[in-house]
Amino acid sequence: MNPCSVCTGFENPVGLSRRSFLNRFGMGLGSIALADLVNPATASVANAAGFPGVMPQPHVAPKAKRVIYLFQSGGPSQVDLYDYKPLLNAKHGEELPASVRMGQRLTGMSGNQSSLPLVGSPFKFAQYGQSGNWFSELIPHIAQCSDDLCIVRSLHTEAINHGPGVTMMQTGAQFPGRPSFGAWLQYGLGAANENLPSFVVLVTKNKGGQPLLSRLWGSGFLPSKYQGVRFRSGEDPVLYLSNPAGIDGASRRKMLDRLKDLHELQLESSSDAQIESQIDQYEMAFRMQTSIPEVTDLSKEPASVFKDYGEGAENPGTFAANCLLARRLAERGVKFIQLYHQGWDQHGGLAKGLSNQCRETDQASAALVQDLKRRGMLEDTLVVWGGEFGRTNYCQGKLTPNSFGRDHHPRCFTMWMAGGGVQPGMTFGTTDDYGYNIAENGVHVHDLHATLLHLLGINHEKLTYKFQGRRFRLTDVHGEVVKPILG
């Protein structure tokens, strides 16, 4: 029987191709799915929960069930936020010693400067909590979480510019094409909630800065079902999820049932895992029509919660609202929630620009940690905060009394984590007195990824995928778990 007769009641005398038929059938939804098989970037609902992971069981006992990654795109200045360097203030305006730089490469933005004057932080630092960790006055709310945070001051990367740097931090490689962390996680562990994506992406709205491309949360060479689903602010958080005008839920259900029948007929003659996967994604999209509006509706949150998360928490798409939404997604079993906040690239006007960034993110970041802790979720939720690299200890351009900027610095930068099995109230790794080089316990990006996977129950050397004759993994060919920070 011609497959078209299953739902239309007539044969296909003109010999429509499968693509043409599906384009006519179901208001074009079939062509959207088939287009995704050819080009995953064209699909709007590309990820589906409910897929089992490839790991029959965890490699090690997991400490964390989920990750909320607060990615600060642009490179936050560690020496103005977390890594207190009084020597820079004492030597403000003096030349960066050649013995400190040691001939290390600079970006094209400051590499041709005739002078590299050291610049101290204009912000006051103080110690907080029993841990005595140092924090800048710009982040008073995060500082109050001092005893819950594990601060790593000795991260380093090879990437010196934003595109490769962000790509490296998200995928473990500087070049595009590799799966993102969230995709690897879903590939390995599967999903906990069949009605929501296992990998969700939230981007702060109306922010300028370095562009964020969808490949940063893509699946690379993994099947497209593992790529992240971006939620947007507005009436349709996920594009093309709602039914077209004039189509109700019952009609959509009938269309999906008939489409499934068609594919089952084809699968009887030729097995195609991609088509099977696509049908599962259709079903997921149908269930998401109910689950997405429920999880993104913040109206039932009490006023006290909005007050905790701060200004903008009631405005969907702001960083504060995204932090609150991240908590709601975590409560419902979403495994990897990626927040992006742009604007940390202060090559000039750092004092004002960095102050604005912290005002937008400090309270909500801290509120998320405290909210999870209050609800008993911090223990098995890993919160990560950081960017793609740090900033230089010297001034980019001319140092003036009222303005300065800092260039990119991949040699050492700071990130923090909370919950999910890391040591609370701990600082790991140190930099030299100039804040230019790592002095002790360096942590490469691959080491960070290996540690995060370990906390989730995954041995980073065992979670691999064979592509073009080689077995790939998130940590490429090296990376070690940073055991001292494990709780």
Descriptive key words:
487 residues; alpha/beta; Alkaline Phosphatase, subunit A; 9-stranded mixed β-sheet; two-stranded antiparallel ribbon; 14 helices; 17 strands; 32% helix; 14% strand; disordered N terminus
Summarize the helices and strands and which ones pair or pack.
Layout: H1 5-8, H2 18-24, H3 29-38, E1 66-72, H4 86-90, H5 98-101, E2 125-128, E3 133-136, H6 140-143, E4 149-156, H7 162-171, H8 181-189, E5 199-203, E6 229-231, H9 249-269, H10 273-296, H11 303-309, H12 319-331, E7 336-341, H13 350-374, E8 381-386, E9 390-391, E10 408-409, E11 413-418, E12 426-428, E13 430-431, E14 438-440, E15 443-444, H14 445-455, E16 465-467, E17 470-472
Parallel strand pairs: 1-7, 1-8, 4-12, 4-15, 5-6, 5-7
Antiparallel strand pairs: 2-3, 4-11, 8-11, 9-10, 13-14, 16-17
Task: Tell how many strands the DSSP assignment holds.
Answer: 17
Whole-number count of domains: 1
Q: Strand count, sense and closure of the main sheet?
A: 9 strands, mixed
Oligomeric state of shown chains: single chain
End-to-end C-alpha gap:
62 Å
Percentage of residues in DSSP E strands: 5-15%
Q: What is the rounded Rg?
A: 24 Å
Please give the CATH architecture.
3-Layer(aba) Sandwich
Low-confidence stretches: 1-50
| CATH class category name | Alpha Beta
Level of helix content?
25-40%
What is the CATH topology descriptor? Alkaline Phosphatase, subunit A
